[in-house]
Structures are given as C-alpha cells and as structure tokens.
Amino acid sequence: MTGQDVSPQLVPGVDSDLNDRLLAGLGAVQQRLTEVVDHEDEFIAGAARYLSDAGGKRFRPMLTLLAAEVGPLSSEEVAQTQVVDAAVGVELTHLASLYHDDVMDEAELRRGVPSANVVFDNSTSILVGDLLFGTASKIISGLGAEAVGIQADTFVRLCAGQIRDDRPVPAGAEPVEHYLGVLADKTGSLIATAARYGAMFSGCDAPTVALLTEYGEKVGMVFQLADDLLDIASDSADSGKTPGTDLREGKATLPVLIARASSDPADDRLKELVAGPIQDEAELAEALTLLRAHPAMDTARAHTLRVADEARATLEPLGEGPAVQALRLLVDGVALRSS
Asked: Is 16-338 a domain of CATH 1.10.600.10?
C-alpha cells in the first residue's frame, strides 16, 4: 500500500486510463444532473433528487460514456460534444421510471433506502416521475431531431413493456417468448439507447452505431434477467431491494415460468404458490425457499449467460482496444450478478 488514493474501478479489469476518463465523465454527468433536477420549490427539488441521491451505479450513463470511447473523436473532443447531455437524458428517463415502478411494485426499499412511494405518496411519486420525464425530454431536445425521435421511440417501448409486464400472457402466446419480449422493451430499449447515443455523439459511422445499439439491447436483457434472478436469490442486505417483489405481484419471471412448466409431482406445491400474487408472508417465504432450491434457477442462469455470450459476439467486428475490452468485461459483470 502506497497511501495514495486508488480510483474505484467502474468495470473490473478495465484499462486504468479509460477508467479515469469514465470517472471524470460520470462526475460531469452528476454535476449536470444536479443542475437540471433543481427547482425553486424546495419540496419539489428534494423529491426530484431523492432517488438520485440514494445512489445507484449510474450504469446507463456509464454505458453512454463507454460507447463514446469507441468513436473516432478524442476524449477531449467527446467532452465538448453532446455525450454528457445524452447520458444525463438517459439517466433522467431511468430515474423517472423508478418513481413509477415504486408505485406499481408497492415495494418498501429502493437502493437500500425507503422507496419513493413510502417517503412521499403515490400521487407525488407519479408526478415527480412525470417531471423527470419532462426534464429528460428538454435535455434531449437540445441534441437534435434524430435524438428526440430516438427518445420518443424508447419511451414508447419502455411504457409498452411495462404495461405488458403487468398483464397476463395473451392467449396463444408462448410464455417464455412473451416474457423475453417484455424484457427487451421495458429494460433493453433504454440501455440500447444509452449505447446508441454514445456511439452517435462520438462520431461513429452508421454500422458501428447499429452494432452498439444491438449490443446495448442484449446487455439490457442480461441486466434484467440477472435482476429477476436476484429478486429470488438475494436478500435485501445484498440487493438493496425488497426480495420477492415479483412473487408478491404475481409476475412470472423466467425461473417461475420454467417451474410452472414442470411435470414433476414434487413441484405441485411450488406451482400452486406461484400461480398468482402471494400476499401471505409465510407463503412468500416458502415460495422463495422452494424456488432457490429448484433447477429452474440454474436453467434461468444458463439462459442469462447465453444472452451474455450473444452480447459479446456483437462486438467482434470492432476488433480490440481498451473500450471494446471494457464492453466485453461489462457483460461479464452484469451477467455474473445472478451467480
């Protein structure tokens, strides 16, 4: 130990110079976030800052900054472009969705602190989410018509995915295929846009922008698949969220869908428990115990790792380099959260 400060690694194993640039970029993103969510009304300002101040990894803006490293512009040129505002717009959109999610999920924890709907009320949480969506739109409007169109399409997909997630699987639809489509919309779309903006505003050509957009969507799928596994596998001390939220709401994530399809009579009790929302705390604990020990968890993890492999494979045309290597390492970090 030298006694010198060591910069935290945003992506384990990332090039140190690249890591320093990403940290500097995230500092600029945080400063801009603080500026744009401020409000003359003290209550509104505090409510708008609440989930942002609670922390989080800033995964989406970090991906915007990292994708920008693939472009031909130098780091100094990128800092003077629209990359930071694009990252801020993506993070504001994400934060806005969390306020709405807290109302819909009726969860008690978010990022290790009381969720927005607990601290405020449902109406305030919804309105603050709307306010942040509006703020995101204002920021993105300064990036040009193409960026505005991308933001609008992303917002439509995000909302459509959330609506579909809250409804039963349509008659005749294959449950797992439907579920994966929901994930692509509600999570993959915004993470795809994060990568797309980074590529666009750092001078990447159209094929590279398309490639990084595809990569971002697959990473988003991995992110949500891992998150759904963590909702079952971890406790609140590990995840900062209330475990079993999806089971409480009756949402059928991949492990549940796999368990429901079991023909083994030994799974009858588990299938009974996960047939719908679980309101009773003892039954929720029983369902979590049974699911954690069920082969469905390993099957779902294996699927998550396959999608991670697909995400890495999209990067092959980009060759090597610190940014591309970091994008590969990022996939590993996201996927292995579920292990």
From this structure: yes
